[in-house]
Input
Amino acid sequence: MDEALKDLGDYIAAALPQDVNGIHTANGQLEVSVRADAIIKVLTFLRDDSNCLFKVLIDICGVDYPERAERFDVVYALLSMSQNQRVRVKLSVGEDVPVPTATTVYSAAGWFERETWDMYGIYFADHPDLRRILTDYGFEGHPMRKDFPLTGRVEVRYDETQKRVVYDPVKLTQDFRSFDFLSPWEGMNEILPGDEKASADEEEGAEGA
Output
């Protein structure tokens, strides 16, 4: 299988030398890195070429690397049922750089791109209906970004007085992960309130024996 994937990767790289940045195989899957502005050309080739025939778009997802200049990776998972093969197509893009929409190649890309936009804020140019799909209309930010606060920015609740859903800023009673006792993962080295009684009972029992 790995040899067949390597041959397919070499074939794709030879057919699109100006568009493919690299070929990599790992865990029984082929990964093709491409230029962002060539993604439509590459996807069309993979769908229509007789040696590829990747007719099914399985998923589109984002990956966040905040420390990089090109912060995001966009990964397309494709399936060729006739060839019984899978391929991942990956591109890197900056935070404010739009990615061409793949809806002109795969109709299923519409919802996948909406999810990627909602979760990561990756913009897909010329998408016919780029709206949030998982979060609410008034949601702020993109929750799969690594710099998004774990507690979120607002909390949603139904107000019985106003008879509607309201958004309130998140208010914590103490700073996140700022506790008054040691982490249980590292072991407890201090006596917590109430534990001193258990220690006294053990000492009395030992004296009675």
Notes: The chain has one domain: 2-208. The chain has a mean pLDDT of 87. The chain is about 25% helix and 25% strand.
